Amino acid sequence: MVLNCSSNCVNIGLETSLQTVAAGTGPTWKAFNLTSVTEWEPKPLCFATCGGTEPKYQRITTTVYRAPERVVLDPLPEVEVGKEYNVTCRVFNVAPIRNLTVTLYQGERRLYVETFEDHRNPEAGSVVVTSNSITAQQNDHGEEVTCRAVLDLRPEGPFLEMDSLSKSLETVVFPMDPYLQTLGSVEINTSMPVECEVSGLFPVQKAAFQLFFAGERLNSSNHISGHKVSAQAQVTSISAGEHQLICIVSLGPVTKTAESTVNVYSLPKPTLHIDHPQIPVNTNVSVMCRSDGSKSPGVVMRISDTKEILLSGDGPSLQYSLTAQEEDNGRQFMCKVELKVDGHSVVKETAANLTVFYAPQMSDSSCPDKLTWKDGSEETFICSASGNPPPTVECRKDEVSYNIGIQQQVTKEHGGIYHCNATNAYGFDLTSLTSLES
C-alpha cells in the first residue's frame, strides 16, 4: 500500500510501526510504500515541520480487508410441506465484517438479508447467518438455494462478491397413514401375501418401505401408480400364535407406521385307521381317528359317517367300535378336525370305507318263486342274489342250465320248476321257482 503525504512545509515524513520504503518525492509531497501490512487497523501519521515550529501531524484512515475465503451453505433438510425450516450460510475468514452483506436466495427470490454495520472488530473472522423460519411449499421442490457474500468497500475500495455452491431444496408430501392389506389368519408353514399401501405421496418414488413379521424383516418389492405406492411381500411362519405384521414407510423426514395382528394357527390333517377294513359279517371293527403334531388350542375332533356324527371330542384321538353288519358294507367313515379361526371354521378331514363280506341271500324280490308267462311273448328270466363279493347265480331246469338275463320267446317248454343256486366264497343260498304258461 502506498501513502502520499503532502504539505507546504519541508521535512515531510511518515510515522508508523509498519515497514516502509520511499516510493517517491516532490517539492511538496513524499510517498511511502508500506511493504508489509501486518496490522488490521494501522494508524499511520503524516507529519511536516515548518521552520522552527512544532511538527504538524495528520492521521491517515486506512481499511485493511480480506476477501471471503469460502462461502458455504449448510446441507438443506428435506422438509414436509407445511412445516418450517431454516437456511444457514457460513462465510469464512473475511474482513472487515462491518462491510459484509450476506443474502440467501431461492431461485431469484431473496429469502433473507443480513448486514453487520455494528461490528467493530476490524480483524478477519467468520460469520454464520441463519434465515428466519420458512414454511415449505410443494412447488419449492427442486428450487436452487444460494448464499451470496458481498464485501462492499466503495468508494475507496473494491466491490467483492462470492457465491456458495447451490443446493436443491427437497419438499415432501405425506398426508395419509399406510394401510396394511392381509389376511387375519394363516396356517403354519403356508405362505400368505401381504401388501402395505400409502396414497398421496410426493415425490412418490422416494418412499422407503420396511416390512416386518414376527420380528423378522421381509423381502418386499415396490409398485408405483400415480401418487400411490405399495410394497408387497410373502409371509411364512413356522410358529403358531399371534404375530405382529408391521409396515414402516419413510419419506424424507417423515416416518409413519401401520400394524396388524396375524393369527398363525396349526391344524394338522387327521389320519383315519380301520383296524380291519375288509372283514366278514359279525366281526368287531375299530375306527381310530388321530391328529398328530402340534395344533392350536380349541381343536374339535369328530368321527362320522355320511348320515351322522358318531363320536366327538377335543383330545388327540378318538376310537369308535362296531360289529360289522351287512348294511355296513361300503360304509364311509370320516375323521374331521375343526378349529374356529377369526370367527370362521377351518376343517380338515380324511375318509375310509369299510368292506363287509357276507354269504348270498335271495328274496322274492330278487328271485320270485312264481313266474307267469304268455306263450309266444318275449320274456327275460331274472334271478339275482345279494352278497359280498357279488355271488354267482345259476338256475337249472331238468339238469339243464338256463340263461339268466337274456330275452327269449316263450314256448310251452319253458314251463316247469327251476332250481337256482347263489354262491360266493362265504356261502350259498338255494331257491326254487315255477314258470307257468298262460
TrEMBL record:
Gene Ontology terms: cellular component: plasma membrane
Membrane topology of this protein: Single-pass type I membrane protein
Main location: membrane
Localization (cell): Membrane
GO molecular function, one term: integrin binding
Gene3D superfamilies linked to this entry: Immunoglobulins
Keyword terms, alphabetized: Cell adhesion, Disulfide bond, Glycoprotein, Immunoglobulin domain, Membrane, Repeat, Signal, Transmembrane, Transmembrane helix
One Gene Ontology term from the biological process aspect of the record: cell-cell adhesion
Domain Ig-like residue range list: 360-431
A Pfam family annotated for this UniProt entry: ICAM1_3_5_D2
PANTHER family linked to this entry: INTERCELLULAR ADHESION MOLECULE, INTERCELLULAR ADHESION MOLECULE 5
Entry's family note: Belongs to the immunoglobulin superfamily. ICAM family.
Name this protein carries in UniProt: Intercellular adhesion molecule 5-like
Species whose genome carries this gene: Podarcis lilfordi (Lilford's wall lizard)
